[in-house]
Amino acid sequence: MSSAPPRLEVRNLTRRFDGQTVVDDVSFSIEAGQVSCLLGPSGCGKSTTLRMIAGVDMQDEGTIHVDGKLVCDTVFRVPPERRAIGLMFQDFALFPHLTVAENVAFGLKEGDRTRRVEELLERVSLSGFGPKYPHELSGGEQQRVALARALAPRPRILLMDEPFSGLDERLRDGIRDDTLELLKEEGTAVLLVTHEPHEAMRMADEILLMRKGRIVQRGAPYNIYNAPVDREAAAFFSDINVLRGTVQGALTQTPFGEFLTPGLPDGTEVDIVIRPQHLKIDFDRNGRGPNPTPTDGVPARAVVERARFMGRESLVEFRTDPGGERLKATVPAVFLPKPGTVMWLMIRRDRCFVFPRRD
Known about the structure:
It holds the Pfam family ABC_tran. The chain is an alpha+beta fold and about 350 residues long. It has eight helices and 20 strands.
């Protein structure tokens, strides 16, 4: 017995503008009820990919399939309104001259319009808001109306382009969670576009990390965070420290001692990447460092250059001595040593990533 085809499948999608490739051979699929996120910096091709799937832009190469059926190639094209694909944008795009109820009902056929509108407004916690107009609502309320309108026709796929970027930061997490809960209840396949790693980690079942028009890595949030494909991927999700070295005899010398770098030929320049939260700190005790564990390796003597309290944690900046490496460490709660304080640093070797340098 064959399994059902993906709700959305994109194969070898390519788009060029003025001879420049903006989307380069992109392929992925999304199952019903799955939330996938196209994540990457501005200008990497995320929104262009979304527009091609929606049918408002035409690809130069590749195909788009919904439930196993072709909806678009370079010759055949199903019109956008017949693709069973909903759209939700960052500016909400509500009609200012229509009431909330009329906005949600827009595009619905006669029949169960009233019941469907009431059902969705209740599910987005806006019961009784039907007679109001968009200008009477807060940003968060407008976002929920836009979500209800996008879901009203029961689309098989919902495309969301930076939908939370216009909201106050204090509102975002709660509205994201409410949105995700409703999307899961509806069983809609969702493709979310964002440049914010936190948003992707919070909402997505799968992240598609995009750079310069290509998907460079895909996977569950936990996996893509803990096994980045390269230095740039690691840096996109958090601050990083980088120790530079050269491989000799499958080893690389650093202020923290030798690192095993097997499989790389002698002379290869490498970046050893460690996130600030994985640096361990101890005070200088009579000039001797702490007793290292096999996981931590050799401690490095360092001098505090600056310390700042960031709200939930403290950020301490160091320079190693000797060697002059600049490193950052994060510490829970308040930890503000004075500049010039001598401390010892150790790194979680099991939390380090080694990449050949590509400068």
